[in-house]
Write a structure and sequence with these properties.
Elements lengths: L1 H16 L4 H29 L3 H9 L7 H26 L1 H10 L1 H17 L4 H13 L15 H36 L15
Length: 207
């Protein structure tokens, strides 16, 4: 269930990254985060009112999608929304760190609500290893958890640009190595090629 949702979210982020209109891109991201904040705040209110413990939340989140009492279905949806949207926001934090970072710094409700959803998601431990790593990086990026000494954001535009430049240099080096190897092989073949016999003209003394 969560894997399918994560695939959809990743597809949405890729589409945003491919957008050439930066103004439209910023507006879409802002609108998305505003809507997610609203959803998470509603989920927080509902789950706090019901006083559900973590084990019960975990059972609700991984339970089969089948007919259930109205109250249980609503709680299940709330837990799922928290887990799914916490991971979704983490992608925005990492792929658009400057823009999203400014939004978090200016909006205390966004920061507080996301921190609540982030910490709850970590406690529930329902994500796959790849998503857990993503959330760990996002937590460091927003400094919700201490940054390690070797921390870098591999998803930022600067990191992606550096990676592209590094790949271009590596490809150029490989191309140069192939060219030199081909030249060396060509020279070796020429050196091994048997020379045609040269007919010498008789000297005057031999006539």
């Amino acid at each position: 269930m969560f894997a399918e949702k994560r695939a959809q979210q990743s597809s949405a982020v890729r589409k945003l990254l491919e957008m050439s209109d930066s103004k439209k891109q910023r507006k879409l991201i802002k609108d998305l985060l505003v809507n997610i904040k609203k959803v998470l705040m509603e989920c927080e209110t509902l789950l706090a009112r019901e006083s559900i413990d973590l084990d019960s939340m975990r059972v609700l989140a991984v339970g089969e999608r089948k007919a259930s009492p109205q109250g249980e279905a609503e709680l299940r949806e709330a837990v799922s929304m928290v887990v799914e949207n916490a991971a979704f926001v983490c992608q925005f934090v990492l792929y658009f760190p400057e823009m999203v970072g400014r939004m978090f710094r200016k909006d205390d409700d966004l920061m507080r609500t996301f921190k609540w959803a982030y910490e709850m998601s970590l406690k529930l431990s329902l994500h796959d290893p790849g998503t857990e790593e993503l959330m760990d990086l996002a937590g460091q990026e927003l400094q919700l958890i201490p940054r390690r000494d070797d921390y870098t954001n591999p998803y930022s535009q600067a990191s992606r640009r550096e990676e592209m430049e590094r790949a271009a240099v590596e490809e150029s080096n490989k191309h140069e190595e192939r060219r030199k190897a081909e030249e060396k092989e060509s020279k070796r073949r020429k050196d091994k090629k048997p020379r045609e016999p040269v007919l010498s003209r008789p000297s005057l003394d031999e006539l």
